[in-house]
Specification:
single chain, alpha+beta, 5-stranded antiparallel sheet, 8-stranded antiparallel sheet, 9 helices, about 325 residues
């Protein structure tokens, strides 16, 4: 026979089940960004043309901007150019927000290898008024478009043009010593804490960049400085002694506003990761591997917390004493 206390106990248990915090969940790994990372890795080991075509189709199905530029690398391969061209067209035509000179250049190269409705759609697309869109900021061959780091924005604004030029010359030499292009990747090979900086300055922008930490590094650690200000953090999440278990992508140096990411979305140490960073005014949104980790959070001025963030400044890739790789760096002004 069931007593009243039995039903009360059962109700209490149900209440606990529905109100207790859920266990931590692993981030969904099958995002378009992670599918692209996996397909690109498989492409390097593909056995034969048929498998390569299948992988190019998989890359196209991810629909990302970087997938489109990745397909462009195969337009000169006679066995694969039709597959690559169809994928480029499918992505560009399905994503009007990808419009820009780079997209139009890829479509113009793809045009001779497609037909029918896709060909007509490309011709209509190319007839429209162009916009700048995403611009590539790493050519895979050398350090064109990059410079060394001179102090911080506040220190630089106090220098005379001659002082800044002298310091920039020395910083550029350090950059050439510490940064290399290895197998088409931008790589930090130095031993200190030296950033590489865009020659151009930016106000509001969106940035795409892939990064990979070297698992053999002593303390794998890096970051992205936005308008010269630290930073969107890159961690080896196994470094629990420094709090890295919170995951990459957070605005690490914030004090008043949130500094940690919403969720851990990192891939395994030594694997590639993809950032999409958007900055408007002082507010930053970050997606890591297709997962939202920072949602419209103000970035504070680390160099002088009494001042607002700089309205215009350079973007910097940080190295923190350990080898780090970057690739597919695209920026568009908003």
């Amino acid at each position: 026979m069931r007593t009243i206390s039995h039903y009360i106990s059962a109700a209490a248990i149900l209440c606990m089940l529905f109100t207790a915090p859920l266990p931590a969940q692993e981030p969904h790994t099958a995002t378009p960004e992670n599918r692209l990372i996996a397909a690109r890795q498989q492409m390097e080991q593909a056995a034969g043309t048929q498998q390569q075509r299948q992988l190019l189709d998989e890359i196209a199905q991810t629909g990302t901007f970087v997938a489109m530029t990745t397909l462009g690398q195969w337009l000169d391969n006679k066995a694969l150019q039709r597959t690559a061209a169809r994928g480029i067209a499918a992505i560009a035509l399905a994503h009007p927000d990808y419009d820009g000179y780079l997209t139009r250049h890829l479509l113009a190269r793809a045009l001779p290898h497609v037909g029918g409705k896709q060909r007509k759609a490309i011709l209509d697309y190319l007839a429209k008024e162009p916009i700048e869109g995403f611009v590539s900021h790493f050519n895979g061959r050398d350090l064109t478009g990059w410079k060394g780091l001179v102090d911080n924005p506040i220190a630089r604004e106090k220098m005379t043009p001659l002082q800044l030029a002298d310091k920039q010359q020395a910083a550029d030499q350090r950059m050439r010593d510490d940064w290399r292009v290895e197998d088409g990747l931008l790589c930090y090979v130095g031993h200190g804490y030296d950033n590489i900086c865009t020659e151009e300055q930016y106000a509001d922008f969106e940035m795409l960049v892939d990064w990979r930490l070297d698992p053999a590094g002593k303390e794998p650690d890096a970051g992205i400085y936005l308008r010269g200000t630290p930073q969107v953090q890159i961690w080896d999440i196994a470094r629990t002694d420094v709090g890295a278990q919170v995951g990459s992508g957070g605005l690490y140096n914030n004090q008043k506003n949130r500094s940690t990411p919403l969720v851990v979305a990192d891939n395994k140490l030594g694997q590639w990761n993809s950032f999409r960073i958007r900055m408007q005014g002082d507010r930053v949104t970050v997606h890591l591997n297709g997962i939202l980790v920072v949602d419209n959070v103000p970035l504070e001025n680390y160099w002088d917390r009494s001042r607002p963030i700089f309205p215009t400044e350079q973007i910097e890739l940080q190295a923190h004493g350990s080898k780090v790789y970057y690739r597919d760096i695209y920026i568009r002004r908003l």
